[in-house]
């Protein structure tokens, strides 16, 4: 099966790398051709336009920074939709808006092709090792066709239901991660100011009811001082806006989300839109005159497992 991959950024590049390591015939494209050079050196092909790419592959994957970027890649005169034909599959792996992915899917359907929204969750470090989770929404027969591709990129695959359901769940989980990050900053700063050793604080949270995935990963890069989560303030605010749009359409009166947005807007103003998102805790560090540091934490997060062909993969179907 021939695969085309558009968008070789922080997440997309790592997913494309997993496909190459697992032996897929891969064609790539990015606005910055230099981003493709490592993949071309590994045997990938290059496509001059999204249309050309779509014409020569069976499955087209997009992993782009915003719904606007996806729309441009899909709908341009030389875009993906112009190159689609019957039986091909478009996998939208960007974090995007449910309504937008459905709108584009209608155009994909007119070509006799199939659309799935398949965002990932778990962080760039896990994407690099094929240990990431992937949500997939769309028709079951299309999902089963691309399941081997998904299992080459991720460890846990969840079919979430109809098209758009995966995009909703992605922004829901990203919202929770942002809330957890803000809460961790407050928790660890309070512990530190109360005189508690931060190594002990990390372990106490990890083995307790207060634990979370965000703690086990992002607290490491806070405590080692790098803050390097490979995810930036502007992307948090983009994802939060997508979550709030879903809630507004569902007439949910949010209370916590607007406050978290306010906190990240302040963090973006202080440290810049491209500052690592985990630097949001620096707001409290600066206000309290402390540094949340603990000896013994590695320079990089240490929970990733090496990728192997034939790795055990967990596949979960949605209820019903």
Structure characterization notes:
It contains 14 helices and 10 strands. It is α/β, with parallel strands linked by helices. It folds into 2 domains: 2-167 and 305-317, NAD(P)-binding Rossmann-like Domain (Rossmann fold), CATH 3.40.50.720; 168-288, N-(1-d-carboxylethyl)-l-norvaline Dehydrogenase, domain 2 (Orthogonal Bundle). The strands form 2 sheets. Strands 3-2-1-4-5-6 form a 6-stranded parallel sheet, sandwiched between helices. The chain has a 4-stranded mixed sheet with strand order 7-8-9-10. Helix 8 (140-153) links the parallel strand 8 and strand 9 (154-161). Helix 9 (165-193) packs parallel to helix 14 and helix 12 (233-249) packs antiparallel against helix 13.
In the residues, how many domains can be counted?
Answer: 2
The CATH architecture of the largest domain would be 3-Layer(aba) Sandwich
The multimeric state of the shown protein is single chain
Query: Might you state the CATH topology name of the largest domain?
Result: Rossmann fold
Separation, N- and C-terminal Cα atoms:
30 Å
Kindly name the structural category. Answer: alpha/beta
Low-confidence stretches: 302-314
Radius of gyration, rounded?
Answer: 20 Å
Q: Tell me the β content.
A: 5-15%
DSSP helical segment count: 14
How much helicity do the residues have?
40-55%
The outline comes out as globular
Widest sheet, order of strands: 3-2-1-4-5-6
CATH superfamily of the largest domain: NAD(P)-binding Rossmann-like Domain
Provide the residue-averaged pLDDT: 92
Query: What is the string of helix and strand elements?
Result: EHEHEHEHHEHEEHEHEHHHHHHE
CATH class of the largest domain: Alpha Beta
């Amino acid at each position: 099966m021939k695969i085309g991959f558009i968008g070789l950024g922080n997440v997309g590049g790592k997913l494309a790398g997993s496909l190459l390591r697992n032996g897929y015939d891969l064609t790539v494209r990015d606005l910055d051709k230099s981003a493709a050079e490592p993949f071309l050196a590994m045997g990938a092909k290059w496509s001059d336009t999204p249309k050309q790419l779509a014409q020569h592959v069976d499955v087209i994957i997009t992993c782009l920074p915003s719904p606007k970027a996806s729309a441009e890649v899909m709908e341009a005169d030389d875009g993906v939709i112009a190159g689609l034909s019957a039986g091909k599959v478009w996998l939208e792996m960007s974090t995007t808006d449910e309504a937008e992915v459905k709108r584009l899917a209608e155009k994909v359907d007119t070509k006799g092709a199939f659309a799935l929204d398949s965002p990932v969750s778990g962080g760039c470090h896990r994407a690099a090792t094929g240990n990431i989770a992937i949500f997939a929404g769309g028709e079951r027969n299309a999902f089963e066709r691309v399941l081997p591709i998904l299992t080459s990129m991720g460890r846990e695959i969840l079919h979430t239901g109809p098209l758009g359901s995966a995009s909703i769940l992605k922004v829901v989980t990203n919202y929770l991660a942002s809330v957890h990050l803000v809460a961790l900053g407050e928790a660890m700063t309070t512990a530190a100011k109360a005189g508690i050793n931060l190594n002990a604080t990390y372990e106490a949270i990890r083995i307790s009811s207060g634990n979370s995935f965000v703690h086990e990963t992002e607290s490491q890069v806070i405590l080692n001082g790098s803050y390097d989560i490979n995810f930036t303030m502007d992307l948090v605010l983009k994802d939060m806006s997508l979550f709030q749009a879903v809630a507004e359409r569902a007439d949910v009166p949010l209370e916590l989300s607007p406050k978290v947005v306010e906190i990240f807007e302040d963090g973006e103003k202080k440290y810049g839109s491209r500052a690592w998102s985990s630097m949001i805790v620096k707001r409290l560090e600066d206000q309290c005159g402390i540094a949340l540091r603990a000896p013994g934490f590695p320079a990089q997060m240490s929970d990733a497992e090496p990728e192997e062909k034939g790795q055990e993969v967990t596949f979960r179907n949605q209820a019903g």
